[in-house]
């Protein structure tokens, strides 16, 4: 605690420095065996949706309804709806993404 901003920045920068040539640590046999062990396709085409449909067919992350006050002159409140909701299901990506566990590092200058 009590570090100044420049000290924090220098510690962060030093943790990401790279000393050496990229070809020193590269092992071609290890890379080909890692790709061979990866089963399936490297692309992800769909994901599980995080939204819900209500009775009217509206799609949202969460639904609320307005509740009338019990006493006359009281404030109205919003209550979260948790019944009669259906999950969205599978959602297709417009552009396929790479799988997180794909063992190849992509590099571009």
Structural features:
elongated; 7 strands; two-stranded antiparallel ribbon; 3-stranded antiparallel β-sheet; 109 residues; alpha+beta
Overview of the structural elements:
A hairpin with a 5-residue loop joins β2 (52-53) and β3. Helix content is 19%, strand content 28%. The chain contains 2 helices and 7 strands. It has helices at 5-15, 28-37; strands at residues 43-48, 52-53, 59-60, 63-67, 77-81, 86-87, 90-98. The two termini are 37 Å apart. It is α+β, with helices and mostly antiparallel strands.
Radius of gyration: 26 Å
Global shape: elongated
Low-confidence blocks of residues: none
What would you call the structural class?
Answer: alpha+beta
Structure summary, number of beta strands: 7
User: How does the major sheet shape up?
Assistant: 3 strands, antiparallel
Task: Bin the helical content.
Answer: 10-25%
Helix tally equals: 2
Short overview:
This protein has 109 residues and is α+β, with helices and mostly antiparallel strands.
